[in-house]
Amino acid sequence: MTHEEKVAHLVKDLGQKGISAHTVAPPAYRFLWRLGIEARPPHFASFWSLAVTMGVFFGFLWGIGMWFAFWQDQDMPVFIALAGSALAGVLFGLIMAAYYRSRARKLMLPRWEDYPAT
């Protein structure tokens, strides 16, 4: 089974358990997969890989959005804007990693290599 087939099966499988497709395969991961990076879906990733992946994507996008929406007009120093973005990314990444690892344990999911169980 290819990576794409496994992801499609996972989206369908967890969808039947009431978990939305955007939670099973969030935009950051869909972007990585389009780039050809076969990252494990978040429910199967390690805590730290989740924290880094989610944190980097969120911190970058949030920082860009805040810069153009507010900080640029407020003459925010770039260093402070970068620090704020990094802090937001770290906090978001840690919270999302805890959420996904908790859900994976609750769902009793096997390792990605063993999914789907035959």
Kindly describe this structure.
By secondary structure, the chain is an all-alpha fold. The chain has one domain (3-114). Helices cover 68% and strands 0% of the residues. It has five helices and no strands. α4 (47-71) packs antiparallel against α5. 20% of the residues are buried.
What are its keywords?
118 residues, mainly alpha, 5 helices
The H-and-E topology, N to C, reads as HHHHH
Measured as a percent range, the helix fraction is 55-70%
Q: Give the mean pLDDT.
A: 95
Identify the overall geometry.
elongated
Tally of individual helices:
5
- Rounded to the nearest angstrom, the distance between the terminal CA atoms is 12 Å
How would you sum up the major sheet? none
Number of strands: 0
Low-confidence stretches: none
The share of residues in extended strands comes to under 5%
Q: How many structural domains can be distinguished in the coordinates?
A: 1
Query: What integer value in Å does the Rg equal?
Result: 17 Å
Give me the secondary-structure category.
mainly alpha
